[in-house]
């Protein structure tokens, strides 16, 4: 590798080179005055026109109906829950990790009886002290992009053996985690800060569940469930986002078995495509106690019917294996969608939900993320929740932290920063303590 290539790889990994900005993707709308009128479906009216008047009707009728619609039309059906043969083992524990500031655990999870079948590796940090005064610890759980080794420079983290795409300006330069990937996204995870605030933080590399490419649907968890190839799938068969979401639930299964973790207080979080996965995971799995969507954008928290930034057609073309094939029916036809993303957010009600945007992330439509959250408020109101407490899109760096809903837009680009984490931790203190 040339020195230029190497420095460029390191810069991308370290997050110092911005991903494509809005201006790099011409042909999409970034002009608020060009947003066309649109009508959002009412989450509180069933498909047959019946109004949803109370929380009981939401739970027993409308919620299952919406889950069915999102499964059939967008993410694809989740073919099963925890496999009968799934088992796990703690492979390492260091009670004096990070210079004594944390306990580090590594857990291998095999999805079948076989040790050579599909598997994932869960990394957990928790405050020191074991089953002391504050354990079991509430926890944050999220998928990572470059292997568990990317979340902290800790030399004790086992390098992932999964195929991880390392890209630079010229494309993919490596498919393996190496020492240089250790800690490259540490600023996105803030392990020391999270642990110092009294939380555990847990992660799995998303590529271990399903590689982020079309070929991923022929391997690992996809193969376990007999998923067909990307273009051969039945219209409602799942894709990578469904598999990543499924993996989050399996990680939660494991966390809930750990007496040092409070399995009833596990927050799920994710950035960008992994934010989409976190939302779909928590829509389906009500065990997640708090949900955090960081810049999840199109197919995540942003409204699809609002023509701003990324479109349904574009996301299906760029990532044909992320969603169900059925979702392509809405390419350039967002007006025909019988649902929108505010209803995905509403599926999380009444559990706390924090949506965050970045000012410089027009591709993800920050205002559309806020508007989706506002449009989910009536469902939260059924449960007596007051909502965000603001009527209009808040100013940049002025978070709105309500009783169950929170939103902030910060300065800067598409990323997760310590400023985002400061808000997430404050909101978690409020709703998970
Ligand atoms: C692309 C994609 C987005 C996605 C993002 C990411 O920009 O178009 O939908 O959120 O990648 O995951 O970083």
List the helices and strands and how they pair.
Layout: H1 3-13, H2 55-75, E1 87-96, H3 97-100, E2 102-110, E3 119-126, E4 137-144, E5 166-168, E6 171-174, H4 186-189, H5 191-196, E7 200-205, H6 206-209, H7 220-224, H8 240-255, E8 261-271, H9 273-284, E9 290-294, H10 312-318, H11 341-346, E10 353-358, H12 366-382, E11 400-401, E12 405-410, H13 418-432
Parallel strand pairs: 4-7, 4-8, 8-9, 9-10, 10-12
Antiparallel strand pairs: 1-2, 2-3, 3-7, 5-6, 11-12
Helix pairs in contact: 8-9
What does this structure look like?
The strands form 2 sheets. A 10-stranded mixed sheet has the order 1-2-3-7-4-8-9-10-12-11, sandwiched between helices. It has a two-stranded antiparallel sheet with strand order 5-6. It is globular. Residues 1-20 have low confidence and may be disordered. The protein has helices spanning 3-13, 55-75, 97-100, 186-189, 191-196, 206-209, 220-224, 240-255, 273-284, 312-318, 341-346, 366-382, 418-432, and strands at 87-96, 102-110, 119-126, 137-144, 166-168, 171-174, 200-205, 261-271, 290-294, 353-358, 400-401, 405-410. Strand 11 and strand 12 (405-410) form a beta hairpin. With 433 residues, the protein is an alpha/beta fold. The N and C termini lie far apart (49 Å). It has a single domain (3-82, 126-432), classed as Alpha/Beta hydrolase fold, catalytic domain (Rossmann fold). The protein binds alpha-D-glucopyranuronic acid.
């Amino acid at each position: 590798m040339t020195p230029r290539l190497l420095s460029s790889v390191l810069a991308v990994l370290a997050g110092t080179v911005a991903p494509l900005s809005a201006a790099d993707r011409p042909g999409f709308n970034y002009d608020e005055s060009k947003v066309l009128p649109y009508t959002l479906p009412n989450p509180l009216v069933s498909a047959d026109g019946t109004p949803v008047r109370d929380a009981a009707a939401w739970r027993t009728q409308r919620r299952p109906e919406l889950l069915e619609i999102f499964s059939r039309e967008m993410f694809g059906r989740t073919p099963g829950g925890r496999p009968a043969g799934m088992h796990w083992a703690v492979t390492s524990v260091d009670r004096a990790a990070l210079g004594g500031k944390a306990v580090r655990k590594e857990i291998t999870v095999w999805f079948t009886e076989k040790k050579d079948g599909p598997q994932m590796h869960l990394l957990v940090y928790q405050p020191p002290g074991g089953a002391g005064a504050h354990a079991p610890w509430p926890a944050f759980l999220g998928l990572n992009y470059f292997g568990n080794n990317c979340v902290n420079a800790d030399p004790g983290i086992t390098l992932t053996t999964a195929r991880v795409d390392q890209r630079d300006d010229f494309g993919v330069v490596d498919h393996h985690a190496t020492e240089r990937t250790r800690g490259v996204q540490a600023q996105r995870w803030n392990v020391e800060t999270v642990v110092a605030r009294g939380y555990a933080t847990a992660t799995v590399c998303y590529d271990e569940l399903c590689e982020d490419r079309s070929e991923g649907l022929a391997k690992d968890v996809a193969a376990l469930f007999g998923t067909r190839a990307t273009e051969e799938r039945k219209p409602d068969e799942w894709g990578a986002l469904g598999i990543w979401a499924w993996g989050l639930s399996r990680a939660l299964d494991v966390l809930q078995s750990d007496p040092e973790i409070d399995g009833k207080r596990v927050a799920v979080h994710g950035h960008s495509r992994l934010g989409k996965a976190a939302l779909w995971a928590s829509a389906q799995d009500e065990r997640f106690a708090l949900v955090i969507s960081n810049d999840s954008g199109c197919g995540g928290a942003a409204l699809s019917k609002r023509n701003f930034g990324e479109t349904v057609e574009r996301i299906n073309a760029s990532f044909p294996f992320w969603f169900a094939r059925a979702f392509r029916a809405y390419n350039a036809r967002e007006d025909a969608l019988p649902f929108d993303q505010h209803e995905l957010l509403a599926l999380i009600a009444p559990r706390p939900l924090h949506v965050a945007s970045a000012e410089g992330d027009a591709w993800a439509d920050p205002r559309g993320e806020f508007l989706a959250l506002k449009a989910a408020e009536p469902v939260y109101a059924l449960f007596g929740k007051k909502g965000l407490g603001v009527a209009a899109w808040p100013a940049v760096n002025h978070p709105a932290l309500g009783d169950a809903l929170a939103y902030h837009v910060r300065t800067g680009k598409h990323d997760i920063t310590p400023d985002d984490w400061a808000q997430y931790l404050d909101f978690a203190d409020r709703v998970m303590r």
